[in-house]
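Intended use. Records like the one below are meant for learning the mapping from a protein sequence to its folded structure. Do not use them to infer anything beyond what is encoded.
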Amino acid sequence: MGSAVGKGGSILDIFSPFHQIHIVMLGLDSAGKTTALYRLKFDQYLNTVPTIGFNCEKIKGQTGKLKGTNFVFWDIGGQDKLRPLWRSYTRCTDGIVFVVDSVDEERMEEAKMELLRTAKSPENASVPFLILANKQDLPGAKDPKEIASLLVLDSLSSGQLWHVQPACAVIGEGLNDGLEILYNMILKSRRMAKQSKRKR
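Structure written out for the chain above:
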């Protein structure tokens, strides 16, 4: 991402419609990452299979502030054996979407461990997190407040931006709202980084 930005470009240059914003989608297997990705891309439900490796898709923002913005989404498989690879994808990303199955309380502890491990690694200290509380249409789904509590999001550093967005990837509910919030957090994070550079 480096060279063009370093040569006196403004924040507006960085987020011109021609710039691509890199987003990594993480989460345990069966949380609904790939369903969310293809709902965002095609605005329809696609029956997906477990991701072995990753999916990469370019998505153009269609509404509000996102209109015309180019996103590159990396959807990384969530099986146990694939999680060590997450780090190589998050190293230079603009934002992270962490998808959680809002109904699967048994695996919430596992999701918490993986989320905190990713969020607390030094290279992700200033990367905003959108926690997508998926499967809100199912009975027993935890609401965003409960999910924030179960994932112990308050333990993240004060400078780390995060938001829990209720969603249903199958029908697309909450996905565009969440993406717009993530986009705003990315802009804010960039502004904060610029200000702290000026202070040095």
